[in-house]
Design a protein that fits this description.
- The complex is a heterodimer of chains A (226) and B (193).
- Chain A contains eleven helices and seven strands.
- Chain A has a five-stranded parallel β-sheet with strand order 2-3-4-1-5, with helices on both faces. Chain A has a two-stranded parallel ribbon with strand order 6-7.
- The longest helix of chain A is centred in the last third of the chain and has 18 residues.
- Chain B has 193 residues and is of the alpha+beta class.
- In chain B, helix 1 packs across helix 2.
- Chain B is elongated.
- The chains are: A alpha/beta (226), B alpha+beta (193).
- Chains A and B meet through helix 2 and strand 2 of A and helix 5 and helix 6 of B.
Chain lengths: 226, 193
């Protein structure tokens, strides 16, 4: 299998959303919410974005508290967190002022119930004016909707959808070492239900079949014998 | 080490008191020559560069043979006499920044390091493929980088070789990528015989 990062429609939407919050306008909010079912590549898109743009990714944990998150942010921004919470907050502001970076928070469902954390993030956003991206499961936007003050700061809600027929075709075309016949590609789109992990498994299977048969392309017959 | 860094280190060494604190004191060209062992011309060139950058300031300059204490030799009186120059640190913070080893930013290694840390946060482990796909680097570069990190004891593979090897991050040194020493070439320790 080839090693490429496939730019699907979801990834395009994700990048477009981040472009929308990376502006220099005063008084305009800079928060983005990304939601979607598991296995659609939200976290991988975020890791890719962080690696290419020097953004900061923080994976939130169930037991996390406000001060814990604050210290984590300071660490990720490249400083040693201060003992006092007030000083840690000042550190975040100073670090962001010196070198503004996008903060990406993964698994935000974990703290949808924790007002302390949500308010801390809102404070950081309001004081530093730094872009903040929330990534959560498909119900994250419903859960966050209860906090109206926070929710109104989301410039956009990006929903990761299951890969459609075009995306599956693109995915197979860019990753597979063997060519899929038209019927096989169509059936792959139906069978995998647009889930990346299933498509990757199918590509592996197709490559094994092609190697065994010494063929350059695979069709429905070879891939779905049973 | 770069000559500028050697001189910078000498400036700070010379200005450190008994308690290890930097005292904002004066230093002379000849003191730097004694400490570093570099030639007068080399040090003058470096000090001129630092003066232009407003990091040090030249406070006194006179022919060396006029010094009352330890006058500088002026063989046969030919040519220009060596100058005794006294300097003072103008901006300690900026000078520290200037002489400390700098890392380039947003390099392929930075991207790979970011992927290693973030993948570890999410899944607990990572593969070479993750570095290639998410860091957008060549497979050879990713393998070389992992080899260096493995030698430094920062990452560990699940097994010695073969397909599907997973890697674990043992030492997270923070968001800045760890400095990797370049491998030595030729004869010597660690090099090819």
């Amino acid at each position: 299998m080839k090693s490429n990062f496939v730019i699907t429609k979801n990834v395009k939407k994700f990048h477009l959303g981040i472009d929308h919050i990376n502006h220099k306008l005063k008084g305009v909010e800079r928060m983005l919410l990304v939601t979607g079912e598991p296995g659609l590549g939200k976290t991988d898109a975020a890791i890719h974005y962080c690696a290419q743009n020097g953004a900061v990714l923080i994976r939130t944990l169930q037991l996390m508290t406000g001060p814990w998150l604050l210290r984590k942010i300071v660490e990720e921004l490249g400083a040693s967190p201060a003992r006092r919470i007030s000083e840690a907050f000042d550190q975040v502001i100073d670090l962001q002022k010196n070198r503004p970076r996008t903060i990406v928070l993964d698994e935000v469902d974990r703290f949808c119930e924790k007002t302390e954390i949500l308010e801390t993030i809102r404070d950081i956003h309001d004081v530093c004016h730094c872009p903040i991206v929330f990534i959560g499961e498909e119900m994250a936007d419903k859960k966050l909707m209860r906090y109206r003050r926070l929710y109104r700061r989301f410039v956009e809600v990006v929903r990761f959808e299951k890969l459609d027929r075009d995306d599956v075709g693109k995915f197979i075309g860019e990753l597979s070492e063997v060519r899929f016949e038209t019927d096989a590609a169509e059936r792959a789109a139906n069978e995998t239900d647009g889930k990346i992990s299933d498509i990757v498994t199918l590509i592996h299977r197709a490559e094994t079949v092609a190697r065994t048969n010494k063929a350059a392309a695979v069709g429905v017959k070879e891939l779905w014998k049973n | 080490m770069e000559k500028l860094r050697i001189v910078g280190k000498a400036i700070f060494e010379d200005g450190i008191d008994k308690d290890g604190n930097f005292v904002d004191r004066f230093f002379t060209l000849d003191q730097l020559i004694d400490i570093t062992g570099l030639s007068r011309t080399e040090i003058r060139r470096i000090m001129e560069k630092l003066s232009r950058e407003n990091l040090v300031i030249e406070v006194a300059k006179k022919p060396g043979y006029l010094l009352l204490k330890n006058p500088l030799p002026w063989p046969d009186g030919n040519g220009r006499p060596p100058l005794a120059i006294t300097y003072r640190v103008r901006n300690k913070e900026k000078l520290t920044q200037r002489i400390k080893p700098r890392q380039k930013e947003n390099t392929a290694q930075d991207r790979m390091w970011s992927v290693i840390r973030n993948k570890t946060k999410v899944d607990g482990l990572f593969q070479v493929r993750d570095l290639v796909v998410l860091g957008e680097v060549k497979r050879e570069n990713a393998r070389w980088y992992l080899k260096q990190l493995r030698r430094a004891g920062i990452v560990k593979p699940s097994r010695d070789g073969g397909p599907g090897v997973t890697w674990t991050l043992l030492k997270d040194t923070g968001p800045r990528r760890p400095a990797i020493e370049k491998p030595t070439r030729g004869r010597g320790e660690g090099g090819k015989p």
